[in-house]
Structures are given as C-alpha cells and as structure tokens.
Design goal:
nine-stranded mixed β-sheet; Lyase, Ornithine Decarboxylase, Chain A, domain 1; eight-stranded parallel β-barrel; alpha/beta; binds ligand LLP; 12 helices
Amino acid sequence: MTALQTGWPYFSYRDSELHIEDVPVAQVAEATGTPVYVYSRAALEERFDSLAQAFAGVRHLVCYSVKANSNLAVLRTFARRGGGFDIVSAGELYRVERAGGDLTKVVYSGVGKSPEEVRAALRAGILLFNVESLGELEMLDQVAAREGRVASIALRINPDVDPQTHPYIATGLKKSKFGVPMAQAVDAYDRARHFRHLRVIGLDCHIGSQLVDLAPFCDALQRIRDLWDRLIRDGYELKLLDIGGGLGIRYRDETPPSFTEYAATVIRSLQPFSETIVLEPGRSLVGNAGVLLTRVRYLKDTGEKTFVIVDAAMNDLLRPSLYGSYQEILLVRATNHHEKTTVDVVGPVCESGDFIARDRELPRVRPGDLLAVMSAGAYGFAMASNYNTRPRAAEVLVNGSAFAVVRTRETYQDLVRGETIPSWLD
Ligand code: LLP
C-alpha cells in the first residue's frame, strides 16, 4: 500500500483513496450520503493537547469557542480533555450542558445577551461573564439580584489595535461593535465595582479571527497588560485574563504560527504574570480537523466557463460565498491525470453567489466523483442554513478505523417543524 500525506494531519491517501485516520472517506459517503461533514477525533484531540502543552508552564484554561463547531460529540471530545467553553448564547450553554461539559469552566461573551440568557447562565454557575457594555452591566446586576446571586465578571475591552498597521484584521476595531473602547475602560471598571451583585474578577479581549501573524496579538496584549497593571494599582483583585481566540490556520498557503510560537509570544508579552490566562480558541482547534464531502452531479461548459455542479451549496458551507474565502478541494480518489482544468465548483442553490470555489484548477472530474472540501471543521456546519429548503448535512466523527454519525441528515419533516397553516386559510 502506498500512503501519501495531504498536508492535513490525519488525512492521507492510501492506495489513491483519501482516508481520515484509518477510514476511507468514500465509505462514509456510502453510509450517509452526501453532503456530509466528517471530523477526525484524533485531529481534534491532537490540537487540544498541543495547545494545552504549549501553555503548560503557566496557569491557563482552554475554553473552546463553541460557535466554531458546536456538535455535541465535538464538545464532548474537548470536555473529556478537561476543556472549558466559550459561549455566546444560552443555546450554546444548553449544548455544553448536553455534552457533559463542566459549566464552572464556561465563559460567556457577546454584545447582546438577554436577561433570560443571563439568568440561565447564572443558574448554571458559569465561571465568567465577559460584559461588553454599561447597559449590560446594569442588566446583569439586576438579574443577579433577583436570583440572589453574584455574577463574576470581566469587561471586554477593545484594545483598538491599529487596523492600518495590520490590515489583515478583518474587524476595523475602532468601528467595531465589540467590547468597551480602551479610552472608556477605567471608567467602566469604576462603574462595575459599585454594583452589589457583580464581582469584578477579570479582563477580557478578543481582536479578530484567522490571524496568521503574531504582531497584532503582541500589540493588543501589551495594551491589555498595561490596563491590567493599572487596575491592580487601583485595587481590583483580578484573577482571570481572557485573551480571546483568533489564531489562524492554513487554508491554502498561509503560514500561521504554531501553538508553541503563539504561547511563547503570549507569555513573553505578559510576563511576569501569575494569574490564570483564559484562551478562547475556535478555528485553530477544529478547522483542519474536518472536511465537507460532496459529490459531483453535473458538468456544464458554457463556453465562458466550466461549472462543476456538486450537491453541497452555500447553505452547507457559507464561507466562500460570504467572505470569498478559499477552501482547498481534493479528489477523494486521486487520479494519475495531471492535466488540470479551471472550473467553478458550484452548488444547486439559486444564487449566483452560490459557489464553493471559483476559477479553481482541478484535475478532471466526472459526475459521481467525490470531492473533499478541506479545512471545513470550523464555521462550516455551524453556519449552515436551510435556504432553498435544503436539509442540513449529516455529521460524522471518525475514531481510528471506526466512525459514527454524530448528527443525522435533516428530514423534510424537520424542516417544517413548528410551522402551521391558520384555519382561516382553509
Ligand atoms: N472569542 C470571541 C469573543 C469570538 O468572537 C470568537 C470568534 C472566538 C473567540 C473564536 O475565534 P477563532 O479562534 O475561531 O478565530 N465565521 C467566521 C469567523 C467568525 C469569528 C467570530 N468570533 C469565519 O468563518 O471565518
């Protein structure tokens, strides 16, 4: 048997067939149909462990950012390794609970928390609320008072890392809706400390996603560190420094820092530091642990372009349509034909913006061929919708030479659940 690495750990060609760990992916497609998301347990665990290892020398807590991939089996995988969770809704809290996650290791971020959501999180006894505005402080204090509880909080501070110097940060931070502006930070803390049902125990920031350079992290951490020191001088007893997520991955030819390099930079930027560093990684833990499998339905040559029409669409994987982002595409059965053609890989959805890849050089494919859209483990299924009344895909977790369906494909009944036709339309 000949084995060939793909560049994605745990994804390899054996005898020209793409495998995830020891499972031929074609076998998964046979069992579940397509489109289907497939994740590697070993890849998830390896990412979690190597991040934890990189920070082993300092007090830290890895709170996996649930929004990146919220499948219960993925959450359980991290919960079993001792991970905490970063949530942005009571829906995500519910998922963490259902997955058996430790609720005392949950941090709750987001600009628009509702009183009901906050109450659920208080009752669950979460570790930390990352508060993003003065209005939210007031609301949280009121809800905590009604519940007879004290909420542990950090303020999310927008460190205003100059997007001019770092244009690859997608969020122009000055204009960003997130966090409290650095200029208002000290005042906001002074307000927070006077609420009777809030306990100020931390400082939080998150500067953006898919960062493939350490410089913006350095800038942000230096500013945050200065603020931390100022707050300590002002008498705050801060215990948790939440530095958010955002570390990028390789989709194409990016060279993101390793966890070791990332950790070294964080630790160096903060030292000396003896309190707990909270991390909120999403993409860097799950992104390259998953693929979207899709089957070619038709080829269409319009004279202008060649379209490869597949059974996955923007409702399954939104990133190319929404951000114009690049996702590598591999043939599940490698061919010896080295001749490539330039094609658009598109789905069945009725939008010109429905594409998985544009002007992509691919080996010749035929109807029925299986394609693997790589790096689809983060913000893939999590951003899927039912547009065009398309059932959302199945999800599968590979475990060595075995695999399990961890979410069945939706049925048409699922799609109309909750809808009713009023009697006056009889
Ligand atoms: N913490 C906070 C407060 C966040 O807002 C995010 C992501 C994370 C942690 C996790 O960031 P990560 O480590 O995954 O970069 N849908 C986009 C990404 C949106 C990220 C939103 N916030 C995409 O597909 O690229």
